[in-house]
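Notes continue from the previous slide.

Worked example: a multi-chain complex. Inputs as given:
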Amino acid sequence: PRSIWISRHGESEYNLSGQIGGDANLSARGAQYAKLLPGLVKQSAGDRPLTVWTSTLKRTAQTARYLPYEKLSWKALDELDSGVCDGMTYAQIEAKYPQDFAARDEDKYNYRYLGGESYRDVVIRLEPIIMELERSENILIVTHQAVLRCIYAYFMGVSQEQSPWMEVPLHTLIKLTPRAYKTEEERMHADV
Ligand code: F6P
């Protein structure tokens, strides 16, 4: 059966400092994950010739760097755009935009950052990606937390409104295998 592999990029410098968005490089630990990823993928996919899809942001290309497959980068896979909050920590956002911070907590799926996006917006911009995925085989997607939560919810048959709460941790390769009634999943965690 057809499978799809997904992974977040390795830990970035922004993940370390708790800043959101941006275009940071991988941290030392994130770079370690990039080195381990080809082995994890091989364990899970064997000799299948995969195609790797990344976003246009550095941390995804750096994570995919050692994967011995064809690569394609998609703007549509870039992280949820946090607009004026790009580069801030959650504590800074709460201090500077308290009403927005509360509004997001109230309705995380529909909340749209000032000058940025909501999860709902991301789900809509992912439509062409999902269509392409549905007619492709052997795709490995290396991208960002919010984007992968939406893709994961889609394949797990979870309502899109639940996307913001899907667990897609760092340094974990997830294999999704759609079956007639439900999608099987297998998670492989890298020790880094
Ligand atoms: O912190 C990493 C990150 O990918 C941010 O760039 C992004 O804004 C955030 O996660 C999305 O997670 P949440 O919707 O829970 O804030």
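Summary box: The pocket of 6-O-phosphono-beta-D-fructofuranose is lined by residues 15, 20-21, 79-80, 82, 144-146, 164 (CB under 6 Å). The mean pLDDT is 97.
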